[in-house]
Specification:
single chain; about 110 residues; mainly alpha; 4 helices; about 85% helix; elongated
């Protein structure tokens, strides 16, 4: 390989790694943001760390964009845990919508 091709390959690998780090930080930050309003930042960081299997320091590094690298295994594990979390949230919201619908139907029947 010529030095120009090697340089292009290395730059491409760095861009890919940078994208992975940014996506990782985005996932962690989104998880914190979802909990922050209800519980406060400190509790949100703690909850997110437990949810995603990270340390609180690692979560803070993601929030403040101090994270420099992420292993493929860590990235995949966090994505899988976050996806499972989103699926659980989706089921919860569907159940809440069904409950609201049933309550609304009951109120309509009482009024009729």
């Amino acid at each position: 390989m010529s030095s120009r091709r090697v340089e292009h390959f290395v730059r491409g690998a760095q861009m890919t790694a940078e994208i992975a780090v940014n996506e990782f930080a985005d996932i962690v930050t989104e998880a914190v943001r979802a909990r922050k309003e209800a519980r406060g930042l400190k509790a949100a960081i703690h909850d997110t760390a437990r949810l995603l299997g990270l340390t609180e320091r690692r979560v803070r590094a993601c929030i403040y964009r101090e994270i420099r690298s992420v292993t493929a295994g860590e990235w995949l594990r966090v994505r899988a845990r976050f996806a499972a979390h989103l699926e659980a949230e989706q089921r919860r919201h569907i159940a809440e919508a069904e409950l609201l619908s049933a309550r609304l139907d009951a109120l309509k029947k009482e009024a009729a």
